[in-house]
Amino acid sequence: MGLVDGPGIRTVFFLQGCPLKCSYCHNPDSQHFMGDKRITVDEVIETANRYREYYDASGGGVTFSGGEALMQGEFVAEAFKALKKNGISTCLDTSGYGVIRHYESVLKYTDHILLDIKHVDEAEHLKLTGRNMDGIKHFIDVLSGFEGKVTIRHVMIPDQTDHYEMMDRILEMVNTIQKKVDKIEILPYHKAGTEKYSQLNIPYKFEMVPAMDPAKAQVYESYINARLETMKIMESEHLKAV
Ligand code: SF4
């Protein structure tokens, strides 16, 4: 059960494997592509149906997260299609790095997207995730044709992304899809779960990075959402004038 993984109460499926290697990843065990459990579309539907009354009461549904769910786009598209056929709302939690040829079919059956923006600067993005920004930029381009809603998320790191310029540049990045963006969540970086690194015997690059003050992150979240709303109003005034 998830309460923060899209609208309402949701059943969340975590798909194994991620092409990114975020320094702060709280689930490093989800990065490799060798999962120990396979499921079918029928099993997804069967599981989801058990919790249907919660979705109906809260406006919830099913979320596919990861790892990176878009890496298994073919399966996600099939599962989302079947969920929609069963009247269950679908949400994709993604960082925008997946198998491109499946994007169109996934988006066709997706109601809501949680899109994680890691960084706005090429060099810093590469340092933080091990990947350049081509993937996220391409995915945002593809979202121009998406008909659902998008919630943007950013994990704020103290002394790295906690500044107003960062907020303004996130807005620039999503400018082309601003009408679909319902809100932007600024998630304070926290240290919970980092013991997994020692259990897996891999170094934790963010050992020395302190947790982000949630109250400060909230100030940035209020700022960026107020600017988003202003931009939307200006855009609709402009369209009326034209
Ligand atoms: S995108 Fe998510 S799962 Fe993948 S490495 Fe980054 S934090 Fe971990």
Mean pLDDT over all positions: 96
Largest pleated sheet: 6 strands, parallel
Distance between the termini: 46 Å
Strand order of the largest sheet: 1-2-3-4-5-6
Number of domains: 1
CATH architecture annotation name:
Alpha-Beta Barrel
Number of strands: 6
Q: Could you tell me which ligands this complex binds, including any ions or cofactors? A: iron/sulfur cluster
Helix content: 40-55%
Specify Rg, calculated over alpha carbons.
18 Å
Give me the CATH superfamily. Answer: Aldolase class I
What overall geometry do the principal axes of the alpha carbons give? globular
Report the CATH C-level class: Alpha Beta
Q: Spans with pLDDT under 50 lasting ≥5 residues?
A: none
Could you state the order of secondary-structure elements as H and E? EHHEHEHEHHEHEHH
Which fold does the CATH topology refer to?
A: TIM Barrel
Strand content: 15-25%
Number of helices: 9
Q: Report the structural category.
A: alpha/beta
